[in-house]
Write a structure and sequence with these properties.
The structure holds 2 protein chains of 2 kinds.
Chain A lengths: L27 H5 L17 E2 L18 H14 L5 E3 L4 H18 L4 E6 L2 E6 L4 E6 L10 H6 L5 E8 L2 E8 L8 H4 L4 H4 L11 H10 L7 E10 L10 H4 L11 H4 E12 L6 E11 H7 L1 H12 L3 H7 L5 H9 L23
Chain B lengths: L22 E7 L3 H10 L2 H5 L1 E6 L9 H5 L5 E5 L2 H13 L5 E7 L1 H13 L7 E5 L5 E5 L5 E5 L3 E3 L6 E9 L4 E6 L17
The structure holds protoporphyrin IX containing FE.
The site of protoporphyrin IX containing FE has 24 residues of chain A, from strand 6, helix 7, strand 8, strand 10 and helix 12.
Chain lengths: 363, 201
């Protein structure tokens, strides 16, 4: 781990809901460390899987990235779980071993990568966990669920940024067995639980035809513990709303009709998903974490002007099927028109920002 | 959001006797009686001798094959008045089923899906089951907003009896829920509904 120049200043009271008046904001540093997902001026789905090794000093530095929103996101998770029990967290009974695997992976990674905030002390199976950011200090017996206040996966992921889907391997396929998904982008965990790899990807256009799903599944089935891989994905959303599940669609979908070329900069958010996948050692399950980042188009223009130019070009040339699938056909033109004012057409570097020579935020 | 052309829809088989089976458990509903009769005709007398047939005459289209099934010699036939009853009989039979049991399902998508849920609970593998769709493509739909299930949905848009919202039925299917997904049809702009069409794909 390379030390960061500045310790992170956590924003503790920001909100991701209309009731909370969407007070979420990014700092300049917060924007410039994002895993910006557009390596080229044109965007299309690809087999964008790479080894999850530390890279740069932004979001790719740690195994599980935390940033200035850690505390407020953990509060948001707790609120969502309370508001809709049985909708955002589910685990099938036979996933208990994988739950402990996941708890171990998260706690060990956090303690290793952020020793100033987290400490894990093991004495045999007696574990002592300290999370200074949330004020948690607990001891429990690893493998004994009666020693924790919640199931191990719920206990650990309530203290983690991003969501987590755990899949078991069955007849050369991956089947969803558990999930903590309070930040879902337009799908249902209840509905998808128990589905296989091709089934839960059923709604995505082109993936099948491009042969990506086949290759991705084969790749994932060969994964070994200790060798995580990652990919990034993105979408657009209106307002800094983290919880956009199918279940609550009637609450958030109307926002899509409120965007115009004047307000697009403030209203439209790029939603970046960093997905580092790990094979879990005891259960042989695979965990699919989705670390979600929100940044408004206006914040990009202000703090990362070259990224704003890049996203302008990628959106302007985006395949209409992807526009439809990602759910922004209603405000696509408005977003492109707003961004066009901030793109001088200068050539931009290619490659992800965390790769050598890749596109940087700009000044 | 993709509505049609989603690849999670189940793909069905054509019922044919599975030679590896030591016992044959066949369960059908409504129009599913027809493939069931064909299956029984394709069986050897020895296979029919170890076959149990459960048939529910509940049907959306009104087709019943009860009389024809009664006329088949040498099978253990259990007739039921409703799908719920037939599924209960299936449950009882599965709870005592031995290794080597093969399962055959025929009928509506909702019926097959619900029977599959039971079979999965009892740990049957996919290669021990054949499924043939018969009759109309009525769907069982799960409402993503209020968690209600509606049987026999025939239109792309319908009003959910649970929450009163107009739902669009996606081609997205969950075997665990044995249902298609229903989502508010005019989510973005109230009253702006997609085209109403018959569900028959
Ligand atoms: C095993 C872990 C994975 C899980 C649990 C998972 C789950 C999902 C889910 C639930 C969706 C949304 C589908 C919907 O609209 O209902 C999705 C979308 C997608 N997935 Fe995966 N996925 C996994 C791995 C992968 C991999 C390895 C790839 C490619 C290499 C991939 C590529 C995609 C793409 C391109 C989309 C569409 C995203 C968009 O346009 O916003 N997924 N995935």
């Amino acid at each position: 781990m390379t030390p960061t120049a500045e310790p992170t200043a956590f924003t503790t009271d920001e909100t991701y809901t209309p009731e909370g008046a969407y007070t979420f904001r990014n700092s300049r540093e917060g924007v410039r460390r994002l895993p910006f997902p557009f390596p080229d001026d044109e965007y299309m789905y690809s087999m964008n899987l790479e080894p999850h090794v530390p890279a740069g000093d932004g979001a790719m530095r740690a195994a599980f990235d935390i940033d200035e929103h850690y505390i407020s996101e953990c509060h948001h998770r707790a609120q969502m779980l309370e508001a809709m029990p049985g909708v955002h967290y589910l685990a099938l009974p036979h996933m208990m071993e994988a739950q402990w695997d996941l708890l171990e992976l998260i706690f060990e990674s956090y303690a290793r990568d952020y020793p100033e905030h987290f400490t894990l002390t093991k004495t045999g199976n007696e574990w002592h966990w300290q999370n200074r950011l949330l004020g948690i200090d607990d001891t429990f017996t690893f493998g004994d669920p009666t020693t924790l206040p919640l199931e191990p996966m719920e206990y650990a992921t309530r203290q983690a940024q991003g969501e987590f889907v755990v899949l078991e391997e069955r007849d050369n396929d991956l089947v969803i067995g558990a999930g903590m998904t309070t930040q879902r982008a337009d799908y249902s965990l209840r509905f998808n639980l128990g589905m296989r790899f091709f089934e839960f990807h059923g709604p995505v256009p082109k993936l099948h035809e491009m042969g990506i799903l086949d290759r991705a599944l084969k790749f994932l089935l060969r994964m070994k513990p200790g060798h995580p891989v990652r990919r990034v994905n993105w979408s657009l959303t209106v307002n800094p709303r983290l919880e956009t599940s199918v279940e609550t669609l009637p609450e958030w979908a109307p926002d899509r009709a409120t965007v115009d070329a004047e307000n697009a900069g403030e209203r439209v958010y790029l939603r970046i998903e960093l997905q580092p996948l790990h094979r879990l050692p005891r259960s042989n399950a695979i965990v699919f974490p989705v670390r979600t980042y929100l940044v408004s188009l206006a914040e990009l223009v202000e703090h990362a002007p070259d990224w704003a130019k890049r996203i302008h070009r990628a959106l302007a040339s985006l395949d209409p099927e992807l526009v439809d699938y990602k759910g922004f056909h209603r405000y696509h033109a408005a977003a492109v028109a707003w961004l066009a004012q901030h793109d001088d057409g200068a050539p931009l570097a290619t490659g992800y920002p965390w790769a050598e020579g890749g596109i940087q935020p700009g000044d | 959001m993709l509505i049609t052309g989603i690849k999670s829809r189940p793909v069905y088989d054509r019922l044919a006797p599975m030679a590896s089976g030591l016992r044959h458990l066949a369960i059908a509903q409504g129009s599913g009686g027809q493939p069931m009769l064909r299956l029984l005709a394709d069986m050897t007398p020895a296979q029919r001798g170890v076959a149990t047939v459960v048939y529910s005459s509940e049907s959306f289209t009104g087709n019943s094959y009860e009389a024809e099934l009664r006329a088949v010699d040498g099978i253990d036939l259990r007739l039921c008045a409703s799908n719920v009853e037939a599924l209960q009989v299936l449950d009882d039979l599965l709870s005592t089923a031995k290794m080597g049991t093969r399962l055959y399902l025929a009928g509506s998508e909702g019926f097959i899906g619900t029977a599959m849920q039971r079979a999965t609970e009892y740990g049957l593998d996919r290669d021990e089951i054949l499924r043939e769709h018969a009759g109309s493509f009525v769907r069982r739909v799960w409402c993503a907003h209020c968690n209600a299930y509606t049987e026999n949905v025939t239109q792309r848009i319908f009003r959910c009896p649970g929450c009163g919202l107009d739902l669009v039925v996606r081609d997205h299917y969950s075997s665990r829920l044995a249902a298609f997904q229903g989502v508010k049809a005019d989510g973005e702009v109230p009253g702006e509904l997609p085209e109403i069409e018959e569900l028959d794909t």
